């Protein structure tokens, strides 16, 4: 376990590094800050307790963490839990992770559905439009729970202009669904699809929703999108 603790120790020591003077070039400061951010995220990733699950791809994780820190700095994140969905992966794969960033541990790794108009086995098309039946990429803050036709469900608030800020109006929520159960893979070869919601297996939906509810960060990733986090944030 020592090799997992070393990056966190180094990160702690870095926080005591001498401050730069006010005469330093702002561009150099920005570059140094970006470099420190990347180093910090890589340390978190390298020390992450996989808990016998597969790790998310490093590029996906880095982008998720950059947005998480930006939203936390704005006071929008209420708990240090990060949910990552990687829509570059096949719907037959476990492409959703729930990560406790305090314990630095993966809590869940499961399959998750994408919108029926986003693609078949793979999600390739995304939209923020009402009635598009497509998934929306980007950063969300989890809202309140309610009981609907799928039982316990979780409202989501998109945080990026033009990307997912129509999520609540579209009723894009996290919920369980029979078509999101892994058993369906045996009959049709890929996971069932939603109307744009990240639907998860019914057997674990209550557990996951109760962990991520209440202003945690959820990130839906696809490598085809350019991520300008600061320029897109609604708040």
For this entry, give a set of tags.
single chain; 235 residues; alpha+beta; 8-stranded mixed sheet; globular
List the helices and strands and how they pair.
Layout: H1 2-14, H2 26-46, H3 58-73, E1 81-86, E2 96-100, E3 105-110, E4 138-148, E5 151-158, H4 167-170, E6 173-176, H5 185-188, E7 199-200, H6 202-212, E8 217-221, H7 229-232
Parallel strand pairs: 1-8, 6-7
Antiparallel strand pairs: 1-2, 2-3, 4-5, 4-8, 5-6
Helix pairs in contact: 1-2, 2-3
Explain what you see.
By secondary structure, the chain is α+β, with helices and mostly antiparallel strands. It has 7 helices and 8 strands; from the N terminus they run αααβββββαβαβαβα. The chain has helices at residues 2-14, 26-46, 58-73, 167-170, 185-188, 202-212, 229-232, and strands at residues 81-86, 96-100, 105-110, 138-148, 151-158, 173-176, 199-200, 217-221. It is globular and about 55 Å long. The N and C termini lie far apart (39 Å).
User: What is the strand content?
Assistant: 15-25%
Structural category: alpha+beta
Give the helix tally.
Answer: 7
Q: What does the overall shape look like?
A: globular
Mean pLDDT: 88
Estimated helix fraction: 25-40%
């Amino acid at each position: 376990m020592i090799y997992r603790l070393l990056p966190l120790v180094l990160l702690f020591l870095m926080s005591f590094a001498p401050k730069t003077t006010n005469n330093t070039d702002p561009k150099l400061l920005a570059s140094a800050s970006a470099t420190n951010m990347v180093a910090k995220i890589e340390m978190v990733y390298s020390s992450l307790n996989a808990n016998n699950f597969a790790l998310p791809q490093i590029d996906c994780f880095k982008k998720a963490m950059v947005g998480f820190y930006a939203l936390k700095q704005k006071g929008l994140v209420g708990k240090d839990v990060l949910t990552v969905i990687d829509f570059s992966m096949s719907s037959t794969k476990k492409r959703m992770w729930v990560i406790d960033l305090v314990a630095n541990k993966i809590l869940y790794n499961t399959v998750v559905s994408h919108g029926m108009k986003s693609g078949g086995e793979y999600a390739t098309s995304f939209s923020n439009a009402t009635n598009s039946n497509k998934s929306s990429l980007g950063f969300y803050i989890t809202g309140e729970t309610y009981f609907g036709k799928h039982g316990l469900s979780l409202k989501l608030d998109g945080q990026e202009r033009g990307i997912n800020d129509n999520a609540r109006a579209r009723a894009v929520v996290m919920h369980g669904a029979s078509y999101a159960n892994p058993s369906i893979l045996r009959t049709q070869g890929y996971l069932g699809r939603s109307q744009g919601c990240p639907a998860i297996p019914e057997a674990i939906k209550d557990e996951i929703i109760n962990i991520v509810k209440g202003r945690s960060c959820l990130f839906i990733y696809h490598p085809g999108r350019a991520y300008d986090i600061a320029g897109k944030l609604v708040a």
